[in-house]
User: Which sequence fits this backbone?
């Protein structure tokens, strides 16, 4: 699944630079995650880095975008051309 940022986001700016796929960007009110670029850090790290640094725990899995580990790895390979 891609990750999402909930409205509990405090715009602290710590998640954006941690994303290896540049999937996180400022939205109109809070940061947002582009589901087409989010691989949950599969291919880069063992755990999603944005979740690791978020001080308010507002980055859950997006239930509307289910993806398997293999699908995330395929997306990673496309994004990175690996």
Assistant:
């Amino acid at each position: 699944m891609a990750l999402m940022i909930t409205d509990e986001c405090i715009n602290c700016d710590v998640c954006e630079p941690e994303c290896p796929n540049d999937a996180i960007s400022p939205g109109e009110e809070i940061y947002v995650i582009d589901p087409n670029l989010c691989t949950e850090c599969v291919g880069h790290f063992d755990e999603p880095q944005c979740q690791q640094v978020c001080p308010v725990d507002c980055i859950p899995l997006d239930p509307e975008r289910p993806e398997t580990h293999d699908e995330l790895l395929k997306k990673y390979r496309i994004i990175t051309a690996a």
